[in-house]
Amino acid sequence: xxxxxxxxxxxxxxxxxxxxxxxxxxxxxxxxxxxxxxxxxxxxxxxxxxxxxxxxxxxxxxxxxxxxxxxxxxxxxxxxxxxxxxxxxxxxxxxxxxxxxxxxxxxxxxxxxxxxxxxxxxxxxxxxxxxxxxxxxxxxxxxxxxxxxxxxxxxxxxxxxxxxxxxxxxxxxxxxxxxxxxxxxxxxxxxxxxxxxxxxxxxxxxxxxxxxxxxxxxxxxxxxxxxxxxxxxxxxxxxxxxxxxxxxxxxxxxxx
Amino acid sequence: xxxxxxxxxxxxxxxxxxxxxxxxxxxxxxxxxxxxxxxxxxxxxxxxxxxxxxxxxxxxxxxxxxxxxxxxxxxxxxxxxxxxxxxxxxxxxxxxxxxxxxxxxxxxxxxxxxxxxxxxxxxxxxxxxxxxxxxxxxxxxxxxxxxxxxxxxxxxxxxxxxxxxxxxxxxxxxxxxxxxxxxxxxxxxxxxxxxxxxxxxxxxxxxxxxxxxxxxxxxxxxxxxxxxxxxxxxxxx
Lengths: 256, 237
Known about the structure:
The complex is a heterodimer. By secondary structure, chain A is of the alpha+beta class. Chain A has one domain (34-249). Chain A is built from eight helices and seven strands, in the order H-H-E-H-H-E-E-E-E-H-H-E-E-H-H. Chain A has helices spanning 3-46, 63-73, 88-93, 106-111, 175-178, 180-184, 223-239, 241-250, and strands spanning 74-80, 118-126, 129-139, 144-151, 158-165, 202-204, 215-217. In chain A, the strands form two sheets. In chain A, strands 1-2-3-4-5 form a five-stranded antiparallel β-sheet. Chain A has a two-stranded parallel sheet with strand order 6-7. In chain A, helix 1 packs across helix 2. The longest helix of chain A is centred in the first third of the chain and has 44 residues, at 3-46. The termini of chain A are far apart. The mean pLDDT of chain A is 87. In chain B, 59% of the residues lie in helices and 2% in strands. Chain B has a two-stranded antiparallel sheet. Chain B is an all-alpha fold. Chain B starts with a helix and ends in an 8-residue tail after the last helix. In chain B, helix 4 packs parallel to helix 8 (125-133), helix 5 (84-106) crosses helix 8 (125-133) and helix 8 (125-133) packs antiparallel against helix 9 (140-169). Chain B is built from ten helices and two strands, in the order αααααααααββα. Chain B has helices at 2-12, 18-25, 41-46, 51-74, 84-106, 108-114, 116-119, 125-133, 140-169, 212-229; strands at 172-173, 192-193. Classes of the chains: A alpha+beta, B mainly alpha. The interface between A and B is medium-sized, with 27 and 30 residues.
C-alpha cells in the first residue's frame, strides 16, 4: 500500500474519532458536572453525618436529598487568607467559572502560594444550631489527602470529620477513609485549649492518652499517612482562624 | 457445479454453530486469558479488592473487546499493514474513552473509585492480543463473539478473585451496590456487611486480602485448581 493511502487512511480515521469523541464529551458534559458537584457536596455533608436529622443515614442519601440539604440548610462563603469574605466576582477572578464557594477546587488552591489561596467554608444550619464545615487538604504517603471538618457553634469542638485520599495503601493509609472508627475519634475533640490557644488535633503514633482533648490514635503501619492528617489539620484549620475569630467577635460569648 | 459451491458456502456459515459456540466458551476455560494465557494480570491485581468495581471493569472490557474486534474486523482489509497496530490502538482508545465518559456521567462514585484503571484498559494485552491474533484475520461476527468470549473469560476470573478478596478482606460483599440486595447485615448498599450484622459482627478483617499481593495468591490458587481439574491444560509430554 502506498504512502499516500496510509496518510489518507490515518487522517480520515483520526478526524472521525475526534468528531465522535467531541460530540460525546460535549453531550455528557453537563451531566458529569452535576454528578461531580453532588459527589463533592456529599463529601462535605459526611462531616456532619450525625446531624442530618433523625434516621437519616449519610450513605443512603440520594442525589436529590443532597441537593435539597445544600439548597435549604447550607450557607456557603468563600474566604481569602486574611479571612475576608469574597464575592462571586472574586471567585471567578480566582479561576472558578461558577462563582460559588462550592466551585473552589482545593487541589488547585494547594498549588498556589499560601498567601494567594482562597477557601470555601460551609455553614450548616439545623434547628439544633449551626455547624461550620471547613475543607482541608494535605499530603499523605503516596499522594494527596483531604477532608472536611465540622465545628460546633462554639467554634472549638469538632462535631465530625471525613477524610479521603488519592492513593494511600488499602488496609493501611486508606483506613483514614475506609475505617469509620478513625474519623469517629475526632468527634468532641477541641482545636483550642482552655486558654484559647490554637492547638489543632494531633494524630499520635502509639495512641493518644485517655481523655486527651487534642489528640487521636494513629493507625498502625500507616504512620506517614497519619502524620499527614495531623499536619493537614494543623495547617488547614489555621488558615480559617481569621474567619473563626471574626465569627466569634460578631457573636461575643458564643457558647452552647 | 457453480451452484453447488454456492450452496456449500451457505451451509458452512450458520449464525451460531459449533465454531461460534467454541469462540465464546473457549476463553472461559481452556484458553482463559488470565489463568491460561496469563494476560491482563496488572488490572486483575489492582481492581479486585471490591466486587462492584471489578464488575464494572469486566463489563467495560467485554464491551471494548467485543466492539474493537468488530470494528477492526470490518475494516481489516482497508487497514494499511504498516500502521495496523496504531489503528488498533486508536480503535481501542476511542472505545475506552466512550466508556470513561459514560461512566463519569452516569455513575460518578464508581468512576472515582476506578480512577486510572478504566484508562488502563487501553493497555490491556487481552484486547490488543485478540485484535492482532483474531480480528485481523476473521469475519466480523466471529470476531465479535471472540471479543465477547475473551472479555467474559477475563471478567469471570476478576469477579471470582474479587469475591474472595472482599469477603475475607473487608467482611463484606457488593459494597456500594446501587441496587438494594441486603442479605447479611443492615446496610442497604451491601449484599453482605459483617460490621452491621447481628450474627457476624465477630468477624475480623484479614488485611492481607486487601493488598494487591493477595490477588496474586488467589489467582495462583485458581490456576492450580483449574489445572488439576482440566487435564487438557497440563503438558503431559
